[in-house]
Every structure is written in structure tokens, then in C-alpha cells.
Write a structure and sequence with these properties.
Layout lengths: L1 E6 L10 H18 L3 H11 L3 H4 L17 H4 L7 H22 L1 H21 L12 H14 L4 E6 L3 E6 L1 H17 L7 H18 L27 E3 L5 E3 L9
Antiparallel strand pairs: 1-2, 2-3, 4-5
């Protein structure tokens, strides 16, 4: 439906989004390692680290030699395995654009807990919808879905540049593309629950993200902020808004980085 490109939403509580950057780095590193393996070895890694409902619910067991991690850990490890470049890239773009502000709203440690919990919730929801499935679930989209839900609850009116239908770049309030995306996940779960994409994992992540942001955000961080932030690329030098400040003579001047305009 759309690809997020940029949001003009500066960090307020942290200087660097260390956890977001670490998660992206780890996902990319694991994908690079698995892409260097033979096809047979890559498939084995997918099965060993992926989340398999039939195994999680006791309907099957892994073949000998594939038990790399204890089964409970697959509720997390599956979120760091991707089957191809675009599978990886699409998830990491969403994490890059939206993860920093969610991390900013929570702090580093709580954001890491949040990310892990959303990943686990995605796997659990996927498993409950098909407890006997032997197909491995892989990919970070369950955790990313939680990040998206948290972001839209924190900053629904922040302007986000998105690439619509892979062709048209548009600056939109965050709630427009993100709520459409969230609605699509629930719709697809209802009409195509057995497709190649795990809509259940997305919905599980969304529900977890929406609930966890209520308790994990900083005490001074409000929900549904009212500030509209316009991307620099579409700001007008003489317009009114967060980029300018009015002087005593009625004219406007660019707002300085520390928040004081020409007086």
C-alpha cells in the first residue's frame, strides 16, 4: 500500500536511538549470514530459528540436529530471520522511520522489552490461529506491527512522507497511512487467514503494541499529541508553523534550533 520514507519528528528524550539501530544491525547481519549459506543450510536455519505452531503446541517435534535453541526462544528468534532482501528491507524501513520515536517515548530498555513482547505476541497469535501448522513463521513484521500501533497512538498528526503504490511521494498525517495499514491487516486476516503472509502475527503485534504503549511510555509523554510537524522539504520560508516565529513587527523569521526566533 505504501512505503514510509521520512517523518519530521525529532527526538525529545534520547540523543540516539541505540536500540533501534542495534535491532536493524542484528537483522541485517543475520540475513547476510544466512544468505551466504547454501540453500539447504538456509532452509535448516529457517526451520531451526523460525516459530512453528505444531512444535510450540506439542503436535510435532523438530528433526534431530535442528534444535539450535530451546523451543520457547523461537517466539523471539523467528523475528530475526528473513527469507529475502525485500522481506528484510520492508521491515527495516518501517523500523527505521518509526522505531526511533517509540524508543524516545519509552527509553532504551523499555523499548527493547516492548519490541520483544510484540514479537512474542505476534508469534502467539499466529500459532493460536493454526496450532497444527508445521510451516515456520519468520520475519520481524509482528514486532514492527507493534511499533506502528504505538507510533500512531503517540504521534497521529505528525507529517510523514510516504511512497504511495511505490510511485507517488506524499506528505500525510501519520494517522492516514498507518490506520489504513492497520485496517488492512485486520481485513486480510478476516478474508485470507491462510495466505502466505501471516496476518495473524501482524494483528497480534498491533494489539500488543497498542496495549503496551499505555504502560511503557514515559510518564510525561502524552498520547495522541496535537502538534502537526511539517517535513522540512515542504516548509515555506514565510509560512507559519513550527519552522518560523513571528517578530514584533508582524513579519516572520526562521525559528532557530534552540526555539527562539528573531524578535
Amino acid at each position: 500500500m505504501f512505503i514510509p520514507l521520512h517523518d519530521a519528528n525529532t527526538l525529545k528524550h534520547i540523543k540516539v536511538q541505540w536500540v533501534t539501530l542495534a535491532l536493524i544491525t542484528l537483522n541485517v547481519a543475520i540475513w547476510l549470514l544466512t544468505s551466504l549459506e547454501s540453500e539447504q543450510a538456509a532452509q535448516a536455519t529457517t526451520v531451526a530459528l523460525g516459530y512453528i505452531p505444531a512444535i510450540a503446541f506439542g503436535h510435532a517435534v523438530l528433526a534431530q540436529g535442528l534444535e539450535i535453541v530451546p523451543e520457547p526462544l523461537t517466539y523471539l528468534t523467528y523475528a530475526f530471520v528473513h527469507t529475502g532482501f525485500w522481506h528484510l528491507a520492508s521491515n527495516m524501513i518501517f523500523l527505521w522511520v518509526f522505531g526511533d520515536n517509540v524508543e524516545d517515548a519509552m527509553g532504551h530498555l523499555r523499548f527493547l522489552v516492548f519490541y520483544i513482547a510484540c514479537a512474542a505476541a505476534g508469534a502467539l497469535c499466529h500459532g493460536l490461529l493454526g496450532t497444527t501448522s508445521e510451516a515456520p513463521l519468520v520475519g520481524a513484521s509482528g514486532a514492527i506491527s507493534g511499533v506502528i500501533a504505538a507510533y500512531v497512538m503517540l504521534h497521529p498528526r505528525v507529517r510523514v512522507w510516504v511512497l504511495v503504490f511505490f510511485r507517488v511521494p506524499l506528505p500525510l498525517p501519520a494517522f492516514v497511512p498507518l490506520l489504513l495499514w492497520i485496517g488492512q491487516q485486520f481485513l486480510m486476516l478476516a478474508i485470507a487467514p491462510d495466505g502466505d503472509v501471516s496476518w495473524g502475527a501482524h494483528v497480534g503485534g498491533i494489539l500488543a503494541g497498542a496495549l503496551l504503549i499505555l504502560v511503557l511510555r514515559r510518564s510525561d509523554v502524552p498520547l495522541f499529541d496535537r502538534e502537526i510537524v511539517t517535513p522540512r522539504a515542504v516548509r515555506n520560508e514565510t509560512g507559519s508553523g513550527p519552522a518560523v516565529a513571528a517578530g514584533t513587527d508582524g513579519r516572520t523569521a526562521p525559528r532557530l534550533p534552540w526555539g527562539r526566533g528573531r524578535q
